[in-house]
Amino acid sequence: MLSITHKLIVSSLLALSWITPVLAAKDETLTRAELYKLIQTVELWLQNKKPRKAELKDVMVPRDAVKTGVSSQAELFFNDKSLIRVDQSSIFRFEPGVRRFELKNRIAMNEVIFKLENGTALILSPPGSVGTKVETPQSKISIFAANPLNSQSSSPELTSLFSPASKASAAMVIHDSTTNKTRVFALTDGEFAISDQQDKKTVALKGGQTVAVKNGVVGKVQEFDLQGFYKSTNLTSGLAPNQENLVAQEALQVQETLKIVRTQTLAALRNQTKRIQGFTSTFLSDALGGTEGDLNPRFRGSVRISNPQVTRGTFYRIEGNRAIFIPENNPNSVQRLNLDFDTGTVTIDGKSGVRNKAGLSGNNASGSVINANGEITQIDVFGVNGEEPENGIPYSGSLTTGVARDR
Hints:
The protein is mostly beta strands. It folds into two domains: 7-224, Jelly Rolls; 279-404, no CATH class. The protein has helices at 226-232, 244-248, 252-289, and strands at residues 7-13, 24-27, 33-39, 42-45, 52-53, 59-60, 65-68, 73-78, 83-86, 91-95, 99-103, 106-109, 112-117, 119-125, 131-136, 139-143, 148-150, 160-162, 169-176, 181-186, 192-196, 202-204, 209-214, 217-218, 222-223, 305-319, 322-327, 335-340, 345-348, 355-361, 364-370, 375-381, 395-404. Strands 5-4-7-10-13-1-15-16-21-22 form a ten-stranded antiparallel beta sheet, with no helix packed on it. Strands 3, 6, 8, 9, 14, 19, 20, 23, 24 and 25 form a ten-stranded antiparallel beta sheet that branches. Strand 27 (322-327) and strand 28 (335-340) form a beta hairpin.
């Protein structure tokens, strides 16, 4: 029924409650997920049955699926207290496959298979889960993975032992079957590793970092703006600062999961702020002193500035060369940009000046417009790691005005 070629497989290793300190063996599949919340059109695909309209408290068992329509959403609450939010135009299912062997503070198991086809899922995992593995036909993504320990058992089925994770984790995974592209957004700090199928290239993610895998090729890690992401992504409701009231509206069990995941999303936000401050200070050093910093050699869009006035904010590339910059201190004062990295040119609020430049290098992207009187406006996008900013993703950046210095 579903497309195998473009499917996104999410293998999630779920935690156990430790019942006994002695060795015990039992077969236990991932037993159930309850449809906790439904918005607009959601279908339930029960195994060997015709699809029907989903209803609240419907139970999914392995080999069942949900399909969300346009402007629709489903939330699934699993028996291990994981919460998965499935966005619009998505198909999500899970399959059996777990065989658990319990040891004191250790766990050995095979995998439960989650499948997400052509859509978006936000995966919120409380402490105790062992790990999640995401696979596309040409990529492998390990999320929430604990470090494996060597097994001392003679049983061939106990060859991979894991310690349960001590912290909650959150990540968003998007797969577009039409372009065979997967993008992963890490919302917490932890074990996030993305590789191709041959493990030739592996990258790690911190909270606030993203990477794309297209046609089996792993791209460069980019630093997306967590604050801007939470403002523009409804699926993350309850994870951002000052959203305690949204958490309080949920059922008590879901509140418990959101609260513990939220401690880690807020920590990741604080850690990213420190990293972004590092990018900002590097830029200011370059602008004021003319030093190269981590921009070596100086890239085409960077210009030395006297008396710089720096405004922090969020950069979005909308489509093609069009982009906007939203100042942090005045969100209503949106700056409209046309940033062409192919030609190395930029306009800012319709002004191209007597000189304009744009470029990529080091951590950042930059574009500057110099007027006839020497006044300069410069946009800097932090943490893109030498890659062009992608459409629809918020990036932290700054808008700087001042006087262009002779170089």
